[in-house]
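Fold sample X.
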Amino acid sequence: MDEMEEELKCPVCGSFFREPIILPCSHNICLACARNILVQTPEAESPQSSRASGSGVSDYDYLELDKMSLYSETDSGYGSYGGFVSAPTTPCQKSPNGVRVFPPTVPPPPLAQHHLLPHTGVLPPVPRNSCLTCPQCHRSLTLDDRGLRGFPKNRVLEGVVDRYQQSKAAALKCQLCEKSPREATVMCEQCDVFYCDPCRLRCHPPRGPLAKHRLVPPAQGRISRRTSPRKISTCTEHELENLSMYCVQCKTPVCYQCLEDGKHSTHEVKALGAMWKLHKGQLSQALNVLSDRATEAKEFLVQLRNMVQHIQENGVEFEACLVAQCDALIEALNRRKAQLLSRVTKEHEHKLLVVRDQISHCTVKLRQTTGLMEYCLEVIKENDPSGFLQISDALIRRVHMTENQWGKGSLTPRMSSDFDLTLDSGPLLQTIQQLDFVQMKGESLFPAAPILQMEECCTQTNSATLSWKQPPLSTIAVDGYILELDDGNGGQFREVYVGTEMICTVDGLRFNSTYKSRVKAFNSSGVGQYSKTLVMQTSEIAWFTFDSVSAHPDIILSNDNLTVTCNSYDDRVIMGNTGFSRGVHYWEMTIDRYDNHPDPAFGIARADVMKDVMLGKDDKAWAMYVDNNRSWFMHNNSHTNRTDGGISKGATVGVLLDFSRGILLFLINDEQQGPVAFNTLEGMYYPAISLNRNVQVTLHSGLPVPDFYTPGESEAAGSVC
């Protein structure tokens, strides 16, 4: 029961509830604490008198408009309820937001004894026009003439507090010991008295009339006291009447006097006992559900505590594994270091060997050269010409030969003193810096790629429906799916749907276009892989009707939005409900009514075309307007190509839009009317018509191209529509 203690404490004083009252917001507060936090409008004005004065915004209005000021400790005192007990404010102290705080008339006892002392005296009357702010939900409540007595007492909460305090009290004492009560050993259920053993033998002997009394252990006797018959409650408005009925609309117990007074006469009322049992049953059902949640929470806490132990064990194991892996890397690096040092040693020895050999060879040659030079100098010193000439040729040859031996390259070192070895440690250092942990187990937590259900995927006109499912053996939880489509031109994919459904219809695609689609699943771990890519082809020919949403208000539609007329003598524009950006499209309009020789206009338009002028008057429309004798082409109020031949009742006007050539042409009664009307057309266009009340036409869409016309070549893949 220790967890319940916070439910039994007042949010203002922090102690157990004492005479708790129920606020309209269903929160509870001590009666004395409610008195402490009352606020009143300035000058004791009522809301009615403040508004009747007509002097702008009153303090009370300010209080109502800015109730947030009640929540500030600096202006209204709210939030410092404890201060009302230890250091009450000055009576009627006015705060900056225009409210007055009424402290308690009599300082309450210390918090530790607040609920142990008897309640003495009567609380002073509550000032008029007082307001109370709930300390939990901050809802402002205006008191009526009854003041705090208008709030019902929470007797159930008060009883729970009493039982809780009794259960927390010391061991039960004998009620008949005179000086120092001894611990009770039994309780008599009939006498309702706790006895120690000496007092039981003296005052409650097991003979005579008392022999039939039932003696129970003290703990059981305490429980029997708790289950004593409930008190009969009286009405707060009619203190002499017992509460016997329950008003369903007001959700409060009422007495018969309340019903006779008329306040609840039109409300639905039921017997108090029946509603008591009904609400007890509802509370029990709610508690069962909450109990299941609490059980799940306890199991979850056990799981978390086990996770703490597992985390500690896994942490030690993982640290040891990490140290072992790093030691293995260091050992591998040391082995490689030894190998590289061995190569350096060999290179060092090779260089020394080559240089020493060159030194030895050069020393021998230099000694031979020096000997030859000394010998030749001695020969030159001789004065015997004939003897000199006998050996001079041979000596000259020897000198030249020796000189040639010291030719180019013989005095160049065969080996450089530098070591032409540079350790390429850059990639290894970069790898060490990039050394990091990889998610070894997380990959399996990502959802698997969905499977497209080909039998349910289809296209209709310019809409595509896709359906998918999870792989049958997949056990990974999925939070949702992401559907992607390209732009119909082989461009980049874009998200068109994110949600939990496994079927989606995408509208507004281009006609005669090829779209690629794919889907992937996601959960809290991340996004899974894409499904296979599905290629879909939208319809080449479009079926459409007139669009009632974007039409001018004077337009009148009928025949499932296929027949149109107007109730104005001025021209009004209406467009089709489907736009075109590629392909070849042909539609016709039959003239159902044609009076007084008007000149309706037929053609195409952008989505933002003007609706209250003739089609073609602005730069957003390309049209042909025609009367009973001739026709003209018009764009941006420019009239061109006057052509003989008009319309009458029963005539047919055809419109052919070819995006492969970028042209627009018109027909009257299956014959082309004039030359090609417009060319170099690119972008999104909607079928359009302008007419007045003298004309009525019916639309026929999705028609084949006339036989006399040969469409241009299909657009190349990847071209822009």
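Fold sample Y, listed below.
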Amino acid sequence: MACAKVPLDELHVTQPFGPQGKERTLPALHPDRKEERCFLTFKPPPEDGTPALVEEFLEHAQFISEDLEWLLALPHDKFWCQVVFDESLQRCLDSYLRHAPRSLDPSGISSSPAVADMQRNVHRSVFMVFLRMATHKESKENFITPAVFAEIIYNNYLFDIPKILDLCVLFGKGNSQLVHKMIENIFTQQPSYYGDLDETVPSIIQVFDSILQKCGIQSGDQPLKLNANKCLTAMTMPEEDLADLVLYMCDTCTTVHSFLDIFPEACSTFKQHNFLNRLSSFYETVVPDLEKAVKKRNFNKSLQENMWRQVSHSRKKMVEIAHLLLQHSCLQPILEGSENVASFVEDLLQNFTAFLQEKRFLADYDEQFPIVDDISLLQQAFPLLDDTRTSYLLQGVESAWEFVGKKRSFPSAISSANHSAGAKSKTGRDLEASQQEGAGVREELRGAEAMTDTPRMGDNGAVCTLSAGELESLLTHIRELLPDLGDGFILACLEEYGYSSELVINNILEDKLSPSLDKLDRAMARPVKKELPPVLSTRSNVFNDDEFDVFNRDRLDMSRIWKGRRQGESVRATLDDKQHIEEQRERYQAYQTVVDEIPITNEPSGDRDDAFGLDDYDDEYDDTYEINQIGANDLDEEDELLNRRPFTIPQVLRTAKKAQVEEDEGEEEDTNDAVKKDYFVQDPAVLRERAEARRAAMQSRKGYRPPPASHVVGGPRGRGQAQETVLDRRRKEANKSRGANHGRRTMADRKRNKGMIPS
């Protein structure tokens, strides 16, 4: 019938037709090749467990399971004919996706083993049908052309975005890899689903807005309605409505998280619609009201526990959704070393900054996924990160913790792995116990405090601060079992094993102590704390040991201490006080002792020479002056000897004419001396002449030739000008552009030549 290696969309088959059995050729995908079979719609298991209802469910589910097993056993061409052209099959599959119990539904776990087994069989059969529907190539012989496959699944609505979301939430747990391959193949072969997803995200945001409206909370981007005051709130709405609202929120958050976790490629589409900011704002607004309503309203005990479990699960999933969006749209491209790393870093920091106003959301996010670890990764991958901005973000995280009223159960400097593992175990511990065992939910009714119940110290190496009372309690507990051990040895063991008394006792009894502890004396006493010296004895100050140092002196001169102006003392008395002069008199009198003559007496020469310092004899000094005859070769001429003071004739012995001549010479000498006097203000003209002389001397040394004198001025008009004047004027006219006129004449000529200025 079928030819090998021909796609199903191009394959034709021959089969008998009519009462006479005539053969005819049909395409492999044709409505006439569909088998007549009616698939039943799925109904959920009974909640109350009535035997009649249970028997009805088992019989109904058995028919569905047998039909699906028959469908999976069909060959490739028959299977696709049944899938494409049998509407009852699509109604059966859609009904299962709609009514299949979720993990948090009240009837999610049936008490009847037969019902649970039948439910698992139907669940597996439905998953295998969808998995085969999402595969366009089963083998080398059985396959469909990818383009035709994309048209078949899209035009016949075999898959759409709501179905894909339900597939993720129903079959993602335990089959994440298969579901990821299935959805990835659907989106790869038919990119139109990305457009459908882009149109679906606003609908999900509208779900959040409708929940806000049901709770009587006005959304920030919507106008206030006239009947807003008449809306019910979480504290006033009926119990059934509140339970449905909480289940609606829980189902939405769980579905979105499952889809993004299995198909991370969709994170970019969600982020384009500002989904992250809308989610954090929704969390900050709705979660406190719902928690308050669940805890304070008088519900049935089982209903209250179920609602609280759903609210806690919604909180966890919303935080994980935010982390998935940040991880796949910002963190992962940064760690992979994408081209535009700076833009991804900026986007991540902007998202963290937007979280600062959502205090509760930021605190819960930091508890599960510490922001300090993300910032440390950014600092390693992007060294140009602004430290001021990161410190501002970390301070905002600390303020969010303080605003919510939580206390950190771990220091901010521990590793990212310990953070993530500890936070995940803290958050999901009570929730998983509630889902699987259905007990112990009362512990979660403590609200946000339940997420911070972690061991004080574990094997992960987290640092713990113990009070003195707790430390003494640990020591007492170990000493009661092992009284022969000293306190110092026990303290060393506690520090080595993270202050866990169980580990210390177990390792001591089994002789498995670390080598560093084996070397210690087991009777070692507790080390004595050294008392710190007093502050006054260790202080260092410039006023130490002065006359007013009260810390080192017992008695002070109180006469030298007064407040304000000294009593009984005036300004005149202060000025008249010459005591400081008398104190300095003796010092200066010592400089007046000058020995002009040395009296020679009959005393021994040694004592006299010692008294006046005459016994110092330097043989080298004398030899030096004996060898160098200083002044021996000087010319002592007559003019040189009279050079100091010229000979002058006394005025009495002068004649009249000589006296007049000498007076005139004296006046000239006085005039010359007057010129040489250093006046405070000299004549500016003289200074200019001296400067000009210095400038001319310097230019002559450098070989500078001054420009020739200019004769631009010339003579009066009407009498003609000299040739030098005409040449100088022409030279000046040609060189005007070098000065401040900036080529005025040249540009004017240019304009005139181009016709801009009439000649």
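Sample Y note: DSSP finds 31 helices and two strands in the chain.
Also: The longest strand covers residues 12-17.
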